[in-house]
Structure formats: structure tokens, C-alpha cells
Specification:
mainly alpha, two-stranded antiparallel sheet, about 50% helix, zinc, coiled coil, Zn(2)-C6 fungal-type domain-containing protein, metal-binding
Length: about 750
């Protein structure tokens, strides 16, 4: 100890330096994430005093208070044409094609909430303003890739979810239900939010209401834990490896295999051109003539093709055994590809197996969510084989081989861009890394090994390759969407309005071209399947492109176009499942691109419905003399259809129950808009009812499949309920768990991995 010369106080030895706390004291006490604003969002909603440790650095902190007088509203708003300021409600042209009634029109700018943005955000994330009448079209769009504070990227356990990953769709519903208080997001309806917070706050409101809410929250947490435990039991009972079946022979009758292969050829091959059909049928018959002596690579192709046919087969007899057999074939193919690398495996046949496996994994929900990782190997295998160079560079290559290589390369590119969008990751390669042309416009029977010259049909003629050709032509805008959304640099914020229009127009034009070039020789069911599948592969990019901007149309009519386009795409994606039974089975059983389309679209519709209820006000829907508008009825029906599909996915084997819970809460929130504080009880009750129904469905399916469903503890749902004795930490939930926290759990996160910072 050293005495200070300046006074009699004792100067202590220097303490070990600790990292200063960044969260406010109230958030640290509640153990919740703080947005570091002044005051922060949690304190503002709960009416608590927000205090920060004096040692924490204030730099970069966002002030949620009135903007300085020098920063007037016009400094943050772009110049907008007068005719844009009064825009009609974004009618979904996919569903309602007629003129909308006069009651459906509204002004996007009739309610302009106060814009509270930080000066830093206005500089870094704002629109580039320009004087003159072209400001609205030449201005750059707001930065929707500002970083983690905008909720656009998240790390869950060991996986990084980029901006186009479906978990970020939750943010859009959050903006509709509870506008977040953070950088570049507009604060709206603060009074209503404070009312909601007061209902959830045990220190305010009616004591009986709070007791009911406390019990409901406890039961919800217990049900979530029970669903998670049952999900683990179901997944652990499923066979995950095939080491005991090294050859996994075709254990089905040839007649059944014939039907399944025919289903694959007539449904999938029009979009994903992996096989030359006449050549494959020759290989198929040769294998069945002597299966024991057949080539193993031929067996793998036949197994994967058969498995893909099984997924859309309408016969539901012994589906458990059928899907178990199909998954076993997938594991066998994966084992073969993962074995010791040999030069003989770098071949067209091996690449066909890889493409079929990627497609089958997503169709059968076997590792479909990690397809982007596997696509890296597929792309590099194809490039090592030279598929990224056009066959015209190889003078000795046969006509048939060259055409197969073009088709395979187009399929690899299609699977790659779809997987990148689902994973929220940049595409594995760019357009300047290949020069292979698109497939030729001809039918399979017009080319064989003896063909010496291509006799390509006119571009207006419809052939077996028409759909793949249009998908290939739309690859440039879709690659650009995936790259801009998931690049490290904020490329999306630098996109001009004209670029946005151009990308949207290109993809929409491809949608129309695909619909117009469906083979007329096909039956109506097959043509409908082709149209819906091609529409899925294209339209979801429009939804991803416009969804981050659609919510801003509430306060800035410049984004009305994005609001309409995202709603059109979402409505089309939801409605397509009910139009074709075979396509419905594919999207309800599948994972990857087949599953994510449902999450993005349903949350987009839920967001639009909640925005509609908020804009119209509660009086319209609670007045006996007034009926809800046709627009709201349309949105309600679409959300109800999304709920049906979500429930059906759970019945068919889906173990994620949070999406159905979210949609149920959104539906109930729209139904009870403007009600008194008991509306929060109704929201909690809807979540509980959803979880109870989902758990019963999962339990029934597990029993049918012979899965051990012994509970690992009931979660403490006894009748002797005492909130004081309940420890929410046993359910991996925060001790200050609220309905808001529940709603915004990403729909596929584990309970113990909700987007925590590394």
C-alpha cells in the first residue's frame, strides 16, 4: 500500500482490468439482451428507469428520444413523387385478379408516426438523396444489411444464418407486431406496446389476470419442453447410418419400381435435367435383368430415382416402411460417395448420383437443411470434370455427351443457387466462372449416341428441356439476388430503384415463360406439377428480394412496390400447394427449398395481416355493423391455409412446432385486435392450444411408427401450480420470459440456442 502525497487516502493496488458492461443495469438484472439504446427497448416497454454503468463506453449508443431540432423530418425522408404518396392497398394479384372494391383502398401515408432515427444511422444507412423529379427512382434503397443489430445475421450454435435464411423472416413479423427499437427501424404505436407490456408486467394490472397469464406462460414453457423431448426421441429412433447395409439392394418388386421411376421421369426431370431418359431406361432394364451382377452406380441411380417417385406417390399404405426403405437408399448413396476417393468416381454417373442425392435429401427431409454444404462438393466435382466449360471447346466430344453435360451443369447451378438462398450464404460460384451455354431446345428422343448434328427446335417450341432453359436464362438475376443479400458488404443497400425493378421484371418474366411452355402433351396433373415446381424455384427469389423492404411501406410509400410484390409472391407460394396433390405431398414432406418456402411465405402473410389490422384500427372489426374488408378476409384465408399446411407437415413427420404456434398467435392477434387486456390471455391461450394439438399429433405419429415415447419428465405440469415454486431456467427460458420473447423465438431454433451472441 502506498500513501498518496496529495491526501491521506490510501491508494489501492491496481485491480485486474475487466471488460466493461455494455448492457443497461435493468437488462443485466433480467438477463435479457439489451439493444444499448437510451433508453433501451426493454426498459421503454416496461416503464423502467434505464441506467448504464458509468464505466461503459457511450460511443455508438442509439438514443431513442426526440430528434434534435436541427434534424428535421425532411432530412431523413427521400423526395417522393406526389402521385406515390396516395397508393392503393397491395392487392395480391395472384389471388384477387379483379378490381378491388372502393372500401379496400387506403392511403399508405394517412398515418405517419414520428421517425426516430439516430444521426449515425441516417448517415450510414440512409437513402442517397438527389434533387429533382427523378429522386424517387434514382435513390438508393435503405440499408437492409446493416449488421447484427438489424437482426439480419445470427449464429445459432455452430451455424451462421445469413440474411436470406428463413429465420430472419421473424423480424418482419416483429415489425408488424412489436416494432423494435433499434437502428434504422421506425418506432410506432408506442402507447399500445406499453399497454401490452403493462399486461405482462406482474406489478401492474389486475391480479387475477396476471395469475392466469403466469400459469399460461408456465404451461407454454412446459409444452415446448415436452415437444422438444418427444422430437429428440423421434429423431434418435430414426436410422441415421447405413453401415449394416453396404449394398442396400432394391428390396421392391420391379412393377412397383417401374411406377416410381415413371413418376420421377414425368414430374422431376422436366425441371432438373439429370438423366437422358432413353439412355436411363436402357440402363434400368439392363440392371433388372440381373440385379446381383449389375453395376453399383446404376443401382444407386435407380434407388434414388425410385425414392423421389415414392415421395409423390399417393398410395399411403405402409408409408412408414416405404420411407424407411427410401432413407436407407439415401444413406447407401451417401456412404458410397463418402468412401475412399477413386478416379473412377469422377464421372458423369457419379455426378448424376450426387445431384439425385441432393434433390432426394430435400424431398425426404434427410439432411435437406445442410444442402448448401454438400453443394460445394458437387460444384467442384463438376468443375473438375470441365462442365463449366462449354462442350464446343472439346472437339472430340460426342453430341449426346455434350448435351448431357450442359443439362447437368444447368442442374448443378440451379441446386446451388437454391441451396445458397436457403442457407443464407453466398452462391458457390459466379457467372464469370463458367461459359457453358444453356441446354438445347430438343426432346430426348431426338438425340442418341449416333447423333452427329443437333437439330434444335425453335425457341418458341415446347420440348422436354423448355423449363430448364427458362430457369437457366433467369439464373443471372437470381444469382444476383442471392449474392446481394448474403454478401459481407451491404450490396443490397447500394441497389438503385431501377436495378430493383430490373431484377424483379426478369424473374417475373421467367415465371410467365415457364407457365406458357408447359408441355401440352402432359396430363393436367403433370402440367400443374411442373408449373408449381418452376414457380417455386423462381418466385421465392422475389419474396426474398422485397420482404426486407416491404415493412417500410407503412411509413414510406416509396416501398409500396416491394410490399405488393412480396405479398403477391407469398400468396402464390401458399396457394400453390392446394392446386396439385402430388406437389402438395412434396412440399409438406420435404425440407430445404420445399420447406422454407412455407416459412417465408406464411410469415410474410402474417405480417401483412397484422399491419392491415393496425392500419385499419380496431373499431372496424369490433363493430357489429361493419364487416371486415375483402382484403382482410383474403389475408385471413391465406393465413388459415398456412396454418393447415403447417399442421399437416407435423402430421407427416415435421418436429418443428414453433411455426404453427407463431401463426396461431398471429391469427388470434388479428381476431382480438383492439380488445382489452385479456387479449394477451387469448394470445397465450392460442399458443397453448397450438402446442397441445401439435404434441398430440406428434405423439400419435410416434406411436404409429413404434417410436419409444416414454416421457423424460412431464415438465412439472401438475395441478398444484405455484408460480413461486416454478423455475423457468429448467426449461432453458429466461426467468423474465414473456409472450413477446415466445413469439420471436426463431421458428426452428432449439430452446437453448436462441440466436445467442458468440
Amino acid at each position: 500500500m502506498v500513501l498518496s502525497s496529495g491526501n491521506d487516502r490510501v491508494q489501492s493496488c491496481p485491480r485486474k482490468r475487466h471488460r466493461s458492461a455494455q448492457s443497461c443495469q435493468e437488462c443485466r438484472r433480467r438477463k435479457v439482451r439489451c439493444d444499448r439504446s437510451e433508453p433501451c427497448g426493454h426498459c421503454l416497454l416496461s416503464k423502467k428507469q434505464c441506467h448504464y454503468d458509468p464505466r461503459s463506453a457511450p460511443s455508438g449508443r442509439i438514443v431513442n428520444g426526440p430528434a434534435p431540432a436541427s434534424q428535421s423530418a425532411h432530412e431523413f425522408a427521400p423526395i417522393i413523387h406526389a402521385q406515390v404518396a396516395s397508393a392503393p392497398r397491395p392487392q395480391a394479384s395472384v389471388i384477387a385478379r379483379g378490381s378491388s372494391p372502393a372500401s379496400d383502398s387506403f392511403h399508405l401515408t394517412r398515418r405517419v408516426p414520428d421517425v426516430q432515427l439516430s444521426s449515425q444511422s441516417s448517415h450510414d444507412n440512409g437513402i442517397v438523396r438527389s434533387e429533382g423529379p427523378r429522386a424517387a427512382t434514382s435513390a438508393n434503397l435503405d440499408n437492409v444489411a446493416a449488421g447484427p443489430q438489424d437482426g439480419k445475421i445470427s449464429l445459432n450454435k455452430s451455424r451462421l444464418f445469413g440474411r436470406s435464411h428463413w429465420t430472419n423472416s421473424t423480424l418482419e413479423v416483429a415489425l408488424a407486431c412489436r416494432p423494435l427499437i433499434c437502428s434504422s427501424i421506425i418506432l410506432a404505436n408506442l402507447q399500445q406496446l406499453q399497454k401490452t407490456a403493462a399486461v405482462l408486467n406482474p406489478e401492474t394490472g389486475n391480479a387475477t389476470d396476471n395469475e392466469v397469464l403466469a400459469r399460461l406462460k408456465w404451461e407454454i414453457a412446459a409444452l415446448l419442453q415436452k415437444c422438444k423431448s418427444l422430437s429428440k426421441n423421434i429423431k434418435s429412433s430414426q436410422q441415421t447410418r447405413c453401415s449394416s447395409f453396404p449394398r442396400a439392394y432394391l428390396s421392391i418388386a420391379k412393377e412397383y419400381a417401374d411406377n416410381m421411376v415413371h413418376l420421377y421421369v414425368t414430374h422431376f426431370e422436366s425441371v432438373f435435367r439429370i438423366l437422358h431418359i432413353p439412355s436411363f431406361w436402357i440402363e434400368y432394364e439392363k440392371y433388372w435383368s440381373d440385379p446381383a451382377e449389375g453395376e453399383y452406380i446404376s443401382q444407386l441411380k435407380i434407388q434414388l430415382v425410385t425414392a423421389l417417385g415414392m415421395i409423390i406417390h399417393q398410395d399411403t399404405i405402409n408409408t412408414t416402411d416405404v420411407y424407411s426403405t427410401a432413407r436407407q437408399w439415401l444413406y447407401a448413396a451417401q456412404e458410397w460417395l463418402s468412401g475412399p476417393l477413386k478416379k473412377s468416381r469422377i464421372s458423369i454417373g457419379s455426378l448424376q448420383v450426387q445431384c439425385l442425392l441432393i434433390l432426394a435429401r430435400q424431398a425426404l427431409s434427410v439432411g435437406g437443411d445442410t444442402a448448401w454444404i454438400s453443394m460445394g462438393l458437387v460444384v467442384r466435382t463438376a468443375m473438375q470434370m470441365g462442365l463449366h466449360r462449354d462442350p464446343k471447346h472439346f472437339k472430340r466430344m460426342g453430341i449426346l455427351e455434350g448435351e448431357i453435360r450442359r443439362r447437368l451443369w444447368a442442374t448443378v447451378l440451379e441446386l446451388n443457387v437454391q441451396a445458397a438462398l436457403d442457407a443464407g450464404m453466398p452462391p458457390t460460384l459466379s457467372l464469370d466462372e463458367f461459359d457453358t451455354e444453356g441446354p438445347s431446345n430438343l426432346n430426348d428422343e431426338d438425340i442418341d449416341e449416333q447423333t452427329e448434328a443437333l437439330r434444335e427446335l425453335p425457341a418458341t417450341a415446347t420440348t422436354d428441356s423448355s423449363l430448364q432453359r427458362f430457369l437457366f436464362q433467369s439464373l443471372r438475376p437470381r444469382l444476383e439476388v442471392a449474392q446481394r443479400m448474403n454478401s459481407i458488404t451491404p450490396a443490397l443497400s447500394e441497389m438503385s430503384y431501377n436495378e430493383l425493378i430490373a431484377l424483379t421484371t426478369s424473374i417475373a418474366s421467367a415465371c410467365r415463360s415457364c407457365s406458357a411452355h408447359i408441355l401440352k402433351t402432359n396430363s393436367f396433373e403433370i402440367a400443374s406439377f411442373h408449373s408449381n415446381l418452376a414457380d417455386l424455384l423462381l418466385r421465392r427469389f422475389i419474396l426474398h428480394l422485397h420482404r426486407p423492404l416491404a415493412g417500410r411501406a407503412r411509413t414510406n410509400p416509396q416501398y409500396y412496390f416491394s410490399r405488393k410484390m412480396s405479398l403477391d409472391a407469398a400468396m402464390a407460394l401458399i396457394s400453390s400447394a392446394s392446386k396439385n396433390a402430388q406437389f402438395e405431398r412434396l412440399v409438406l414432406l420435404g425440407a430445404g427449398m420445399f420447406k422454407n418456402r412455407m416459412i417465408h411465405a406464411s410469415l410474410a402473410v402474417a405480417s401483412e395481416l397484422l399491419i392491415e389490422v393496425e392500419e385499419q384500427g380496431p373499431g372496424e372489426y369490433h363493430s357489429p355493423s361493419r364487416e371486415p374488408s375483402g382484403y382482410r378476409k383474403m389475408l385471413t384465408e391465406a393465413l388459415r391455409e398456412a396454418l393447415r399446411q403447417s399442421a399437416e407437415r407435423i402430421r407427416l413427420g415435421e418436429t418443428n412446432v414453433k411455426l404453427h404456434m407463431k401463426l396461431s398467435m398471429a391469427m388470434r392477434q388479428a381476431e382480438v385486435a383492439g380488445a382489452h387486456s385479456s387479449s394477451m390471455q387469448q394470445l397465450a391461450q392460442s399458443a397453448k392450444e397450438s402446442l397441445e394439438a401439435s404434441y398430440a399429433t406428434m405423439q400419435a405419429r410416434a406411436t404409429h411408427e413404434g417410436t419409444d415415447i416414454e416421457s423424460r419428465g412431464s415438465g412439472g405440469m401438475s395441478e398444484d401450480f405455484d408460480p413461486e415454486d416454478f423455475d423457468p431456467e429448467s426449461f432453458f427460458l429466461d426467468s423474465n420470459f414473456s409472450l413477446d420473447d415466445l413469439f420471436f423465438i426463431p421458428a426452428d431454433f432449439d430452446m437453448d440456442g436462441a440466436a445467442r451472441q458468440p
